[in-house]
Design goal:
Blueprint lengths: L7 H26 L4 H6 L3 H24 L3 H24 L6 H6 L3 H23 L2
């Protein structure tokens, strides 16, 4: 297996495949963290949910980009990506905590696009901070 992963083409496919699998798992975890069904809301045309979910997708992909660049193996890449995801998930709860005058989940479910945009930018922005931390180790 190690010999196969020395081939750049195979390693790229392996990194891509692990990242896609992790993204599916992490989106399912985000789904459990929210009080609404992401994909049902997107299907209904809820732009706020689409923005918030898109921010999460971008954030996780950005974190995995840094973990791929930093890691020497698929397992290390997955470990750093998972650690970054946990930090991003924690950020979601911090966002909710920092907005005591309203509930982020309810506002996003009600298609409040201002809150959806803020959620998107928070996920993207903090993913860059998390990625920088991963890259500097």
């Amino acid at each position: 297996m190690g010999l196969l992963l020395e081939n750049e083409w195979i390693l790229t496919i392996a990194n891509y495949s692990v990242t896609i699998l992790a993204l599916v798992v992490f989106l399912a975890i985000f789904e459990l963290a929210t009080k609404y069904n992401n994909w049902e809301e997107v299907k209904r045309g809820n732009v706020a949910v689409a923005m918030a979910t898109g921010g999460k997708v971008f954030g996780v992909a950005n974190i995995f980009s840094a973990s791929i660049a930093h890691a020497s193996s698929l397992l290390t890449m997955l470990a750093w990506g998972t650690f970054g995801f946990v930090l991003l998930l924690f950020s979601y709860y911090v966002f909710e905590f920092l907005t005591p005058s309203f509930t982020v989940d309810e506002e996003i479910k009600n298609d409040n696009r201002a809150v959806g945009l803020l959620s998107l930018l928070l996920s993207i922005g903090l993913s860059f901070v998390i990625s920088a931390g991963i890259s500097s180790t």
